[in-house]
Each structure stands twice: as C-alpha cells, then as structure tokens.
Amino acid sequence: MSHLAYSNLTLDQLTPDLLLHIAQYLDIKSILQLSMTCKRLSTLVNDEHLFRRLVERDYQLTYKAATNTWRSLYKLAPMDICPHLGSLPETFPQDKQHPQRHATCDLCQQPSVTYLSLTSLDKQMCQACVSKLKDNQQLQGTCSVMYNMDGQNLYCFECSRAVGKENSDMNEREKAKQLLDQLQPPTNGLANSPLPKPTTKAAPTDDPQDVQRRKAEHIRYIQELRLEDMAIKHYLVEKNWSRNWMMFRTREGTPPPGPIANYRLAKNNGQLDPELRVPYDKYRPAPETHADIISERLWTFLVDTYGLEGRAYSEDMLVGPDYARLRECVNEYKRSIERYP
C-alpha cells in the first residue's frame, strides 16, 4: 500500500500491526494519551509487543527474566542492566558448551589463556590480547561479553564489569545464569576429560506408513493455507504444539506430536487468557505468538487424530471487553487474505 493510501485511512481502519508500528515511535506520555482516545486504543498501555520495542528503543535491552513483563521492565528504567548480554544466543552449540582450556592463546600463542569469545569466532585469549579488543582486526564483530575461564563468570568489556553477579539486576542474573550453566565445568568431575569424538549417525528414516501419514497431513496443511472461506469458525491451537506438528510433517524421522496442549492457553481458572498473542496475518510468520489460528475443518481433524489436553477455544468465545483485543486480532487475521492476490 502506498504512503498516500495510508494517509487516507481512518483510525478504525488501521490494522493492529500498523498501530503498533506508529506507537513505537511515540514517547510514553504520547502513548498514554493516545490510549485514552478510544476503547480500541486502550489496550496499547498493556501491549507486550509495544513495550518490548520500547525497551529495546530506550534502553537497548533485548532480554528479560521469564517471570517479568516488558511493561514492568520499561517502568523500572533499567539503566544498570548490561545490554550486551542480549546479543548472545540462549543456547550455545554443543561444541562450545563446557569448553576445554587451550594450552596457548589463539592470537599470540602465549601460554596464559583467560577469556573465551562467545561468538562464532570461538577464540580463547589471554588478558593482553583481550585488552586490545577494539583494535584487533581478528576480533571485529566479537561480542563484548566474554567468559572468564579463571573466575568462571561473564565479563563485559563495554560495561567494564562482571555481569550476572548476586548484586546485579534480576533480569541480568537470569540471563547470565542461563549462559553460565552451559559454560562452567560440569560438577561430576569430568571437566578436564577429553571431549568425545563426534560420531556420524545415520539419518533417521520412516517406515512406509509414516511417510504416507506425513504426506497426507501436509496436504491438509496446504489445503488450510488455500482456504478462502473465512466465514468458517476458527480456533486457537497452542503454538509449541503447532511447531511440533510442523516438524513432524516436514522432517523425516521426527515423531508425531502428542495431544494438543491447549491448557497452556488458559488462566488458572481454565478461562482463555485474554493477554495471549496471536497472528494478525494468515500468510506472515508470527514466531512470538502464543497460539495459531486454524479453521474448524483443520481443528476437527487434529483433535480426532491427536486428542486434546485442555479446552477448545473458538472465536465464538471472544466475547466481552476483556477479549476485545483478541477478537480484533482474529478479525484482522481473517481479513488478511484480502491483501493477497
């Protein structure tokens, strides 16, 4: 859609994605004022997608503790959290976990290794080489957070301090612990034992029945993508289960998923959680959502095939002010096919 076309839209015609895009460029005072203009915009002050972007914009943070929310993190004004931890992956490759100390520095070959680079460069270095980090062409693009193999902790050379210590912020501690659990020597006394040689395993194969089942279920998925009758009732299916079903359909040797885990979409009282994130567009990936939206036709097939743990949540249940945001998201999802030829 052209810029001119956007300028002719009324507030009611703005999609949730476009509203989010606009709001992320406003200061927090303007967002609060905007949220009070009408009922539809009142959800902005609790929108986790929006506050995640605001935290990254204003504090350069891209991670938080699992028990925290992006909104509460923004209110804390977290100036004392190391932002550079966020550039490290949640899970390191197997060959980087519980590393063996090299005999010499990978850069100067001196026998005094102290730090391990945690990026793909995978260098073990002495204190002298690390102190020249910014000037060393071999280390351009290296994350400033490194693993101190002497102290078995993480040190950020941009923040000039150890990160994740007991007196540091809870969000930083949790992120650092998640990384250190993969780096520190195991407690079973095998820290200095040689690493096992990698073995070559034959790729898992399916028996003919599994091959046919994969093909049949993937055809059903393709039919779902091509479905244009959006008047059909739609249901929510838990995201992780949906991912597991996708893996089963597309990767040979992957086992089928168990029952649909829809209990994860509910609050403690069994009612659907109104704070769930769902996709706005049928054809765009939405990795940061809690649930996928599927037609009643596909839902019936999946429940008959795999079973259900928890309740079935259809769009008919999205009634009342608490579910106004979810209702609008589902409506936008169903309208999204009109944007494609």
From TrEMBL:
GO molecular function annotation: cysteine-type deubiquitinase activity
InterPro entries reported in the protein's UniProt record: DUSP-like_sf, F-box-like_dom_sf, F-box_dom, Pept_C19_DUSP
Region of interest called Disordered, as start-end residue ranges on this chain: 182-214
Pfam families: DUSP (PF06337), F-box-like (PF12937)
Residues annotated as domain DUSP: 209-319
F-box domain boundaries: 8-54
Gene3D superfamilies, per the entry: 1.20.1280.50, DUSP-like
Signal sequence residues: none
Record-given protein name: DUSP domain-containing protein
